[in-house]
Amino acid sequence: MTDQTESTIDALTSEGLDAHKHQLGERLAGAYQDVPEQQVRARVNAGFERFEDAKVHAFVPILVERRVRAELDGA
Description:
single chain, 3 helices, 75 residues
């Protein structure tokens, strides 16, 4: 792969993760209405930050969702 191809893939990955982050924040804020939306979104953002340096991003959204749900459920 060329440097240009790698940077394009990285950009698409970054944009895709941003979209997943936004959608997940909305979905979890709706599911956990007893928790302030800002707190839910902060947990989602922290979850995505945890995986920033991961080489494979395909499973990041589901891993973040499971972790945040566990935190919000008090597990």
